[in-house]
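seq as requested:
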Amino acid sequence: TFANRIWAMYFGNALPSAPEDLGHQGEYPPYPELLDLLAAEFIQSGWDVKGLVKQIVLSKTYRQSSDASDELYEKDPYNRLLARQSPVRLTAEIIRDNALKISGLLNPKIGGESARPYQPGGHYRNLNFPKREYEHDTDEGQYRRGVYTHWQRTFLHPMMTTFDASGRDECVVKRDLSNTPLQALTLLNDPTQVEAAKALAEILIEKKSDRHRIETAFSYALARKPSSTEFNTLEAFVNRERLRFENEENQSEAFLKVGLTDPSANDSPVELAALASLSRAIL
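struct tokens:
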């Protein structure tokens, strides 16, 4: 059961596609020998979770391209035969962690009290018995991993809800994953995302040219270099942002005040704001 769930994290689908039911009423796995092998080696390793993850992500199956032929998509639309890779959207907690890690803000502390990330004002206004207000962390707790986020039943953290985190009123083995405009707006405007973009911009501003900056940001965020089309699009975008912030200089100062971190006094607010816009687009 555990090996099946770890597999699902990296492929989008579990081997038997109903991970909540490995009994006779669930789907028979298309590759039962594979599931047995993963489970047996996991036990023999002394329950080494990192070893199980490494075994999966270094496999040829995981490292396949998702760009398959039309014929293959027609024969196996749900990729049950694992003849290609399936694009998998990150889960709510990891989307937040990913931005913080890329920008260098992530606090790796393990255990301790719950973290309270930024949240819209008045989110708890209808919470009674007793009435309470939410106060976000103003120290390193702000940048802790999403798994430590304070969880208020029926008043879940809005960013987590937007990206389909479960309510925890009951055990949810397999989350539903949606694609909505609200998710794109959250990635653009959530204070955590904006602050991560600012922190990444502080790294990029030290680079000598826009080419180095765009390539560095791509390397941090996507572990690859941009294509020529991506580079040309982003180069034009950052130049437009420079002009915009030059014409509306007060906008750059307001933009750079988002979050707890303060920009370096030695950096041009216009240049830093433009690179933060670039970072936000790439994130």
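Residues 228-247 form the longest helix (20 residues).
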